[in-house]
Amino acid sequence: MDKLSEGLILVSKHRPSAADHPAEGLKRFFLIVEYDGTDYCGWQRQQNGPSVQQTLEEALCRLMGEEIVVTGSSRTDAGVHAMGLCAHFDSATRIPPEKIAFALNTMLPPDIRIRESGLAKEGFHARYSACGKVYRYRFFNSRHDCAIGRQYAAHVPLVLDVELMNREAQALIGTHDFEAFAASGSVVKSTVRTIYRAQVTRCGDEVTLLVLGDGFLYNMVRIIAGTLMEIGTGKREPGAIAKAIETKDRLALGQTAPAKGLTLMRVLYGGDEETALSYFD
Fold first, then answer.
1. pLDDT tens-digit profile of 220-250?
2. Would you call 77 a catalytic residue per the annotation?
3. Catalytic site residue from 77, 90, 177, 205
4. What is the value of pTM for the model shown?
């Protein structure tokens, strides 16, 4: 285990303001949401198709009998999946907080499930209170693609050198300016992020990349995955990640890997250090 992980402490930089508290007469609830993103245009409500946020808000409105706005911790792209996206909403409902998950799951389509619901802590904000995230990217590494599970992994027919990919991934660890790892046109205040763990492993035909960081730029994990895939197949020379960090040159990196291989495993908050590192055991 690397030194950054050994001393991992997740601390939110967010300082709650009046906007982080529900209006008078309302309570703030949190949800842990799992979804298959195959048939959605992403998390965020959009004009060009159904989103997870829209579907969830419509179900909550029917359940609560009031207008509900859901705030998510992340905005996953079309086709990206989630096992543990956190969201919050404010409501005057008298439904017991832990029962909301059961009620919602009777109203949601089978590709969206609420894994947990509860009353949020004072000043909690699903997005701004978050301290980190764990992402997983899966490759199906076989001459022929799979039939079952094909919507959750990118097919790579050439043999992947997993040990080489794992060594390359270690260049991510630390606090760096990841400007080269952001999709073209993305706008953020800072491109500096801290990566605590990065690991590539194989189990049979399945090759898995796990990344733990305090945050990620738009398409960052998919660009990392595409770069590691090219290095693992010999298409790109090792050292590309370190070079891209140093030069901030997007051309030093590989393609953006397909959305379907990416899953947001967990959004992390203060005190979640043990949970974060458990993905890498």
1. 999 999 999 999 999 999 999 999 999 999 9
2. yes
3. 77
4. 0.94
